[in-house]
Design goal:
The protein has about 110 residues and is of the alpha/beta class. It has one domain: Rossmann fold (3-Layer(aba) Sandwich). It has 4 helices and 8 strands. The strands form 2 sheets. A 6-stranded mixed sheet has the order 5-6-7-2-1-8, with helices on one face. A hairpin with a 2-residue loop joins β5 and β6. The radius of gyration is 13 Å and the shape is globular. The two termini are about 15 Å apart.
């Protein structure tokens, strides 16, 4: 069970790769992108093309192919409720938390 911090180019590619590999993504955090824009950006990728599965926003969650993914908009990684969402691993894809000290805020 994976959480993704940052839903820019890298975060979206991580999500696509995880879905293709059958990895469960349980949460996405990005303080600058709301869930409706996440739907649009994931569905229509200028480099990798259109996602051919179903993508929607429902009850504040990103729902891809029927699987709900919690969405958070926290700037502080220590405030993201990864464990409450069931995340066992977190992919840091913002490019901001690049040291062990900074990235450990996700723990």
């Amino acid at each position: 069970k994976v959480g993704i911090n940052g839903f820019g180019r890298i975060g979206r590619l991580v999500l696509r790769a995880a879905l293709k590999a059958g990895v469960s993504v349980v949460a996405v955090n990005d303080p600058f992108i709301d869930v409706d824009y996440m739907v649009y950006m994931f569905k229509y990728d200028s480099t990798h093309g259109r996602y051919h599965g179903s993508v929607a926003a429902k009850d504040g969650k990103l729902v891809i192919d029927g699987h709900p993914i919690a969405v958070h908009q926290e700037r502080d990684p220590s405030a993201i409720p990864w464990s409450a969402d069931g995340a066992e691993y977190v992919v840091e894809s913002t490019g901001v938390f690049t040291t062990i000290e900074k990235a450990s805020a996700h723990l």
